[in-house]
Design goal:
Distance between the termini: 21 Å
CATH superfamily: Peptide deformylase
Order of helices and strands: HEEEEEEEHH
Strand order of the largest sheet: 1-2-3-6-7
Shape: globular
Structural class: alpha+beta
Strand content: 25-35%
Number of strands: 7
Number of helices: 3
Largest sheet: 5 strands, antiparallel
Length: 179
């Protein structure tokens, strides 16, 4: 297993829609294992394949940060089948460093996906799990949390990170767990 490099905004790869996985191969399983290792090393709550430069509909999630691995989800071709209610959640992102935004999400979702053995699974989620599933599925569709803010805020953030990159400053520290 390996820790993969996380793609950062404004990389255009993050804006692309991921392709469905036709068949789960040994390579797919290996990618999922690497994504899990990368998720825990980050540390994060969720990680989608485009965040590690792979345009496939794969994500890993573990919202139980007190018991890592106990409730780990590895999802291939996840799809939201039902959503209801509304919740506002402050979200951060491993690919949008040092940035958070209050986001309106569905309070409860039902997601259908394949596990790494090609078994169909259904997940009924609320709270952080619901928000994290929606956040990661957004990544698979080429959507980022920074797309949810005004153009002015997005431009200010973009200028700030480009200036930091030009000056050679190290990346900012990530506060706590990121989705």
């Amino acid at each position: 297993m390996a820790i993969l490099k996380i793609v950062r905004y404004p990389d255009p790869l993050l804006k692309k829609r991921s392709l469905e996985v036709g068949k789960i191969t040994d390579e797919t399983v290996h990618l999922i294992q690497d994504m899990v290792e990368t998720l825990y090393a980050a540390p994060g709550v969720g990680l989608a394949a485009p965040q590690v430069a792979v345009l496939q509909r794969i994500l890993v999630l573990d919202v139980d940060y007190e018991n890592p691995g106990k409730n780990l989800l590895k999802l291939v071709n996840p799809e939201i089948r039902h959503a209801e209610g509304e919740v506002v959640w402050e979200e951060g992102c491993l690919s949008v460093v040092d940035f958070t935004v209050e986001t309106k999400r569905a309070a409860r979702v039902q997601v259908v996906a394949l596990d790494e053995k090609e078994n169909e699974i259904t997940i009924a989620a609320e709270g952080l799990l619901s928000v994290a599933l929606q956040h990661e599925i957004d990544h698979l569709d080429g959507k980022l949390i920074i797309d949810r803010v005004s153009r002015l805020k997005r431009d200010l953030y973009t200028r700030r990170i480009k200036k930091a990159a030009r000056s050679g400053k190290p990346e900012p520290e990530r506060p706590g767990l990121m989705i």
